[in-house]
Amino acid sequence: MSGLRSEQRQAEAALAAVEPLPEPREPAPRRSRRRWLAAALATIVLGGALAGGVVAYLDARGRVEEESAERTESVAELEDDLGRLRERLFSLSAQNDALRTRVEEAEQAVGEVEAGLGPLARRIQRSVFTIRTADGAGTGWSAWWADGSTYIITASHVVRGFRVLDVRQGERTRRGEVVANDGDNDLALVRVSGLVAAPLWQDPETLGRPRAGDQVVLVGSPYGLEGSVTTGVVSRSSALEIQTDAAANPGNSGGPVVDGEGLVAGVLVSGAGENVNFAVPLRRACIALREC
Hints:
Helix content is 39%, strand content 28%. It is α+β, with helices and mostly antiparallel strands. It has a domain at 122-286: Thrombin, subunit H, CATH 2.40.10. The strands form two sheets. It has a six-stranded antiparallel barrel. A six-stranded antiparallel β-barrel has the order 7-8-9-12-11-10. Strand 4 (164-169) and strand 5 form a beta hairpin. The N and C termini lie far apart (165 Å).
């Protein structure tokens, strides 16, 4: 019994002398795995940042392109507006020039009326000529300038049968050529090379329209007396003829009948004596002599 106990004690002592085994631990993570996880995380973060940057870039680019398109459209609209303003400015400038010319003409006419018929008659005289042919003489007057020539209106019967004639004013004589002849209205057109006198009818729309009772001036070469002036009133006026009591004699035919504003109203073509004389309204010259 005692021997059994003794063996038991020896076994326990032997067990006590043996060191206990350490408790098992989790294995430490490998460094390569950590690095891989860190790299993956960095890639994810960088990818997200890049994606956000791309989205922001595309959004900003879209806004820039949209604003650029709007600016281009605005510039085009401004250019259209500018073009219309330029056209309007040119139109107003042309209208202003035309209005200025009319105002100057009106001021001149008013000044002549206020000063009496003397200044008016002297101005008209400078544009009136004696027309001479082998058959006799009549009157013509500078109507308009064009292409380096002066176009003179006279009566058809003054130049009938002639192509070339003499146009005289004072001591100067020029060669004239008949370029149009309207026998129905007793009007003819003579061309003289060069600008020889101020025109009295440069603008075809600017012409006198006298009424009965209006005062008129006649300038012509009665009996060859160049630059003679007579005055009178309109006795009757129609689309076909103007009747006046202003004195006229042979040689006056073709001369201008001028109203109080200095505008040519007609062309003297005949006289019946007793101061009953007739003129063709200047508007009739638009039938065959010029475009009006």
